[in-house]
Amino acid sequence: MEDAAPQTRIQTRNRKTILSAGLDVFSAHGFRGATLDQIASTAGLSKPNLLYYFPSKEAVYTALLDDLLVTWLDPLRALDPAGEPIAEILAYAQRKLMMSRDYPRESRLFANEILQGAPLVGPVLHTELRALVDDRATVLQGWMDDGLIRRTDPVHLIFSIWSLTQHYADFDVQIRAVLDDDDPFPGAECFLDQLYRSLLEPRQR
Questions:
Q1: Both ends of the chain: CA-CA distance in Å?
Q2: Domain spans of the chain?
Q3: Which residue, 99, 100, 68, 91, is CA-closest to 175?
Q4: pTM for this predicted structure
Q5: CA distance 156 to 162
Q6: Architecture of 9-64 per CATH?
Q7: pLDDT (tens digit, 9 = 90+) per residue, 128-169?
Q8: Span 73-200: which CATH code?
């Protein structure tokens, strides 16, 4: 089978434009509420031009999720079993918070997929994600057993980091309404550091 011909610069640019437009539309309306017409309009392309690159709405959505899943698990993968435990956990929380700051559309896309029952990413959740969480929970449990961090449920510790960081992307409108449009991330960064230090630092004997 012959390799596909390399894309021209215009083709590469148009594909990126379509994916960015799809990210806007899907993160705002979810998969069911999004249409190809909306994506084409947001991309500034005709619908036939869009269909040259992606044959369906499903194809755009799948490409977005595939690209997202490549990097979505990286912050947890980067937690170093050989590192200093509290520093590693705090760094993981900060990486997740920065993803909410830098990739809010991607976070909302992922949240919408989960709320719909994860029809496309379900297999990844049950395999790759579960294996990674089990592995890192084992690392956390080992640190607890060695007295390096205070005992707590390691899996729910990971869940809490997801909840407390992704909230800043998925509920951005609510947060900025309460904060009168101030940037929430400096305060969130300080709060998470204080919260997890107080939770995890071993008690003095």
A1: 67
A2: 9-64, 73-200
A3: 100
A4: 0.86
A5: 10
A6: Orthogonal Bundle (1.10)
A7: 999 999 999 999 999 999 999 999 999 999 999 999 999 999
A8: 1.10.357.10
Question: Taking a C-beta distance cutoff of 8 angstroms, is the pair 168, 101 a contact?
Answer: yes
- 75-113 confidence digits (pLDDT tens): 999 999 999 999 999 999 999 999 999 999 999 999 989
Nearest to residue 60, comparing CAs of 94, 17, 91?
17
**Alpha carbon of 17 to those of 14, 21, 38: distances in Å?**
5, 6, 13
Contact 125, 70 (CB under 8 A): no
Distances (CA, A) of 61 to 20, 94, 171, 197: 11, 28, 22, 39
Residue 205 pLDDT greater than 60, yes or no: no
